[in-house]
Design a protein that fits this description.
It holds the Pfam family TctC. By secondary structure, this protein is α/β, with parallel strands linked by helices. It contains eleven helices and nine strands. Strands 1, 2, 3, 4, 5, 6, 7, 8 and 9 form a nine-stranded mixed beta sheet that branches. Helix 6 links the parallel strand 5 and strand 6. Helix 1 runs parallel beside helix 9 and helix 4 packs across helix 11. The longest helix is centred in the first third of the chain and has 25 residues. The model has no long low-confidence stretch (mean pLDDT about 90).
């Protein structure tokens, strides 16, 4: 009897493996949608569209980008968490996946258990920028200006939980000052008002600021990473400008709904790695002040580890700042 049971179990394993192989060979047989949980034109949208175009070539099916903004990115993420786990609805989200548990008392999803990680995509530096006619000439003068004017300064961001808001929180905490925050429904509208002079400052990803900085349409003061950014070599880091230990980059990851077949996840991971190794993607990323992650980071394991560690980190920061979305 034991021998029969053993043979049956082995047969089931073999059938399961063959089914997974067949599924991977058939997938994808229709277009794949990547949901971006923010408005079109923002930095996460820009990154996603570059990756989606390259993945389309690798998968042999169109990869469509769908913007589902609202509620600090939780609306779009919740939509993907509830989607069929067949590999045709994915999520490309940023650092907000790790901040949401601390910001929202009730979420329509669990970032860890309701998603199957596919891989990290990129880590984007941020820039401290202002309307082009703001008085301070450099970062030292800006720090003094912020300390002297505090709440008279309007600071735009993409809403609660957005990377632009988190950067502002860290900066205000480091300088021990409060500015007047002006939240928007996405970074795109915030940038529009900054360009128009309706707000004074913001902190945003290089993917959304580099072209405006280079065109002289906004004034740039510093980057938020420990090292200077190659595309913006004249911008000092905050750490070298009197704000010690300031280090913030915005990581992005690709996810599928939990329960997606491992063979499909493996195929998507391979496609993501192929997209990030594409020379045109790397060149486009470089023009935006960032770079694709290494292949060993574009994996489910690396993304899962990043998400877990960042949930703990941002939980402490957000709790100390007393910020919540509800």
């Amino acid at each position: 009897m034991k021998s029969i049971v053993t043979k049956l179990a082995a047969g089931l394993v073999a059938v399961s493996a063959l089914t997974g192989i067949a599924l991977a060979q058939e997938y994808p047989s229709q277009p794949v949608t990547i949901v971006v949980p923010f408005a079109a034109g923002g930095p996460t949208d820009t990154v996603t569209r570059l990756v989606a175009a390259a993945m389309s070539e690798d998968l042999g099916q169109q990869v469509v980008v769908q913007n589902v903004g609202g509620a600090g990115g939780t609306l779009g993420a919740g939509q993907v968490a509830a989607a069929a786990n067949d590999g045709y609805t994915l999520l490309l989200h940023h650092i907000g996946m790790s901040t949401a548990p601390a910001l929202y008392a009730s979420l329509p999803f669990d970032p860890v258990t309701d998603f199957a990680p596919i891989g990290l995509v990129t880590e984007v530096p941020m820039t401290v920028v202002a309307r082009k006619d703001l008085e301070p000439a450099d970062i030292g003068a800006l720090i003094t200006f912020i300390k002297e004017n505090g709440e008279n300064i309007t600071y735009g961001n993409a809403g609660i939980g957005a990377a632009s808001q988190l950067c502002g929180l860290l900066l205000q905490d480091a300088l021990e000052v409060k500015m007047t925050e002006v939240p928007y429904q996405g970074t795109g509208p915030a940038m529009t008002d900054l360009l128009g002079g309706q707000i004074d400052m913001m902190c945003d990803q290089t993917t959304n600021t580099t072209s405006q900085i280079q065109a002289g349409e906004i004034k740039a003061y510093a980057v938020t990473t420990p090292e200077r950014v190659a595309i913006l070599p004249d911008l000092p880091t905050l750490a070298e400008s009197g704000v010690p230990d300031f280090n913030l980059s915005v990581w992005h990851g690709l996810y599928a709904p939990a329960g997606t077949d491992p063979a499909i996840i493996e195929r998507l991971t391979a496609s993501l790695q192929a997209a990030l190794a594409d020379e045109s993607v790397a060149n486009s990323f470089a023009e935006l002040g960032t770079a694709p992650v290494a292949a060993d980071q574009a994996t489910p394991e690396a993304l899962a580890a990043q998400l877990e560690s960042q949930i703990g980190l941002w939980g402490e920061v957000i709790s100390a700042a007393g910020v919540s979305a509800q």
